[in-house]
Amino acid sequence: MTQRVELAAVLDRLAIDALITDYAITVDDGDWDAYRRLFAPDGRADYRSAGGIEGPAPEVADWLTESLRIFVVRQHLIVNRRIHFDIRDQDIGDTARIQADYTNPMRLADKAEGSDSAAPDFECGGRYAFTAVRTHNGWRLRQVVVQEKWRRQHWSDPVT
């Protein structure tokens, strides 16, 4: 590889890392318009292993809007990112596959306002399989597949 190709590969890795970070932040913040913008026009998401749906990103964003509303706190972390580029003519191609593990602690809203009892904490974890594609607007997600491996719910003391 030439230095130019190596520099391009580093820049692509940084851009894809930022894309995956933006994905986590948009989901945690409930910024569904920004979530939609992360995807290529043909982008799809598959949350079936976590009890969700699969479909075009705009439809999945609508589903996420409703289904995640019950969680007042979301803060998932995406780690152990592996990025594999398709190679084309001795050069890095325009498609990348990303595998990354996640852990996702969330807090359910209290059952009754003014209640002394705390809502349960909910945690899950697993692996994401992302496919990213280079577009005129930079790297975008073509596919997100959630592979949930575990989940648990536990009760904590009320926050004072």
Topology:
Elements: H1 3-29, H2 32-37, E1 39-46, E2 54-56, H3 57-67, E3 71-74, E4 77-88, E5 91-108, E6 120-135, E7 138-155
Parallel strand pairs: 1-7
Antiparallel strand pairs: 1-2, 3-5, 4-5, 5-6, 6-7
> In one word, what is the shape?
elongated
Estimate the strand proportion: over 45%
Roughly how much helix do the residues carry, as a percent range?
A: 25-40%
Question: For the report, how would you describe the main beta sheet?
Answer: 7 strands, mixed
Mean pLDDT over the full residue set: 89
Radius of gyration computed on alpha carbons: 18 Å
Task: Catalogue the unreliable spans.
Answer: none
What tags apply to this protein structure?
7 strands, 3 helices, seven-stranded mixed beta sheet, alpha+beta, 160 residues
Structural summary, described in words:
By secondary structure, the protein is an alpha+beta fold. It is built from three helices and seven strands. Strands 1, 2, 3, 4, 5, 6 and 7 form a seven-stranded mixed sheet that branches. The N and C termini lie far apart (58 Å). The mean pLDDT is 89.
Short description:
The chain has 160 residues and is of the alpha+beta class. It has three helices and seven strands, in the order ααββαβββββ.
